[in-house]
Design brief:
This protein has 229 residues and is mostly beta strands. The protein contains three helices and 16 strands. The longest helix is centred in the C-terminal third of the chain and has 6 residues. Keywords: Signal.
């Protein structure tokens, strides 16, 4: 982004396992798609996604666009940020924020989870983005969360994993339409991925904290933290 007014939004179809694409904010950025790629993990275990600077890609004539999706632990919210110029994020501009989208998750929420609120203090300088993100005015898919079900809600619905801490096998109860199981370490790296079974062998994992992600046949996801002895 080479101008203070540069804001672009476009999260769309997944390019790879750790990619987010976005399309939106048509008032400012026209009908364009922007790709975010995972660039690292913050000290709180949250994944960080950035667009690759594209010199010369039009943002409705405002310059090239560089953006970042990251967790703000002080304000306990996910943020969509625009660079202050030339691809640097020392003092970025806030475009959207989401304080209600399953904040226990390692990845940012989609545009249908919680509310991605437009920061009009910034966007109105360039004509506005048309309001908060919704499925009607944007697409945001890929490595994002698509369910509002948090861990506490899962417990209420009788979905449980045990024992915790665990040495060898984790048992999952309360699910009859699971499709896939993924286990991530505290750095957000995928440690295990396999077809859903009610018993999961974790004996080969190193000791430490992990997140077990259950992906359902209807694409809903549930996440649980556990400790490997």
């Amino acid at each position: 982004m080479k101008s203070l007014y540069l804001l672009c939004l476009a999260f769309g179809s997944v390019i790879s396992a750790q990619t987010i694409t976005f399309k939106g904010c048509y008032n400012i950025f026209d009908n364009q798609t922007y790709t975010f790629t995972k660039t690292g993990v913050d000290p709180h275990g949250k994944n960080i996604y950035m667009t690759t600077p594209i010199d010369g890609q039009s943002c409705s004539g405002l310059g090239s666009c560089e953006f970042k999706l990251q967790w703000n632990n002080t304000l306990t919210r996910w943020e969509f940020l625009a660079d202050e110029g030339y691809g640097t994020f020392t003092s970025p501009s806030l475009v959207y924020y989401n304080s209600t989208g399953n904040n226990a998750a390692l990845n940012p929420p989609s545009n249908t989870v919680g509310t991605w609120v437009e920061n009009t203090t910034f966007t109105q300088q360039a004509g506005g983005c048309g309001g908060n993100l919704t499925a009607a005015n944007s697409t945001m898919t890929g490595d994002v969360h698509t369910t509002t079900l948090a861990i506490s809600e899962a417990v209420k619905r009788k979905i449980q994993i045990f024992p915790n801490p665990v040495s060898d096998f984790i048992t999952i109860s309360g699910i009859d339409n699971g499709r896939l199981i993924q286990i991530y370490n505290i750095s957000g790296q995928l440690a295990l991925s396999e077809v859903f079974e009610q018993k999961v062998n974790v004996s080969q994992l190193s000791s430490g904290m992990y997140v077990l992600k259950i992906i359902m046949k209807d694409s809903e996801t549930y996440e649980f933290k556990f400790v490997k002895k």
